[in-house]
Design goal:
Number of strands: 7
Structural class: alpha+beta
Radius of gyration: 17 Å
Number of helices: 3
Helix content: 10-25%
Strand order of the largest sheet: 3-4-7-5-6
Distance between the termini: 54 Å
Order of helices and strands: EHEHEEEEEH
Oligomer: single chain
Shape: elongated
């Protein structure tokens, strides 16, 4: 019908993998969408969105960073100065209406939304702790 992109919401999770190679651009399982919503509420940092990937083995997180240079391990620092845990990757920085592909020279600012991919769920807590504001922030 001329649609450039097709997104499908699938109720039977067994069909998600089958449809991914069918010409449908994005296939979302209802269970995955529900899990992501729940995960965003149980995370320690200011997580606004969580997407479960690879059947729960990995996650994509959108985390809002807060604070200042003294209360945060990230604010005011360049991407390459931050000790990102192995298995995590900063993909993009959303600053207001601007989306920046993460580059080593970008500095993180208060209120930035960081899009982080975590290939090993064991490091999610370390990523959250890295992005949490310390108790010194008022």
């Amino acid at each position: 019908l001329g649609a450039r992109r097709v997104i499908s919401l699938i109720h039977q999770s067994a069909f998600v993998e089958l449809l991914e190679d069918s010409g449908i651009n994005i296939v979302i399982g209802v269970a995955d969408a529900t899990i992501g919503s729940i995960l965003s509420h149980v995370r320690m940092a200011d997580v606004t969105v969580v997407h479960s990937l690879r059947r729960g083995a990995a996650e994509a997180l959108e985390i809002v960073v807060h604070g200042d240079r003294s209360s945060s391990a990230c604010i005011g620092r360049r991407v390459d100065q931050i000790a990102w845990p192995d298995g995590s990757f900063l993909g993009a920085i959303v600053r207001g209406t601007e989306v920046l592909m993460a580059h080593h020279s970008h500095s993180i600012q208060d209120g930035d939304h960081l899009i982080i991919f975590v290939s090993n769920k064991k490091v999610i807590r370390r990523v959250e702790r890295l992005l949490q504001v310390s108790g010194l922030f008022i």
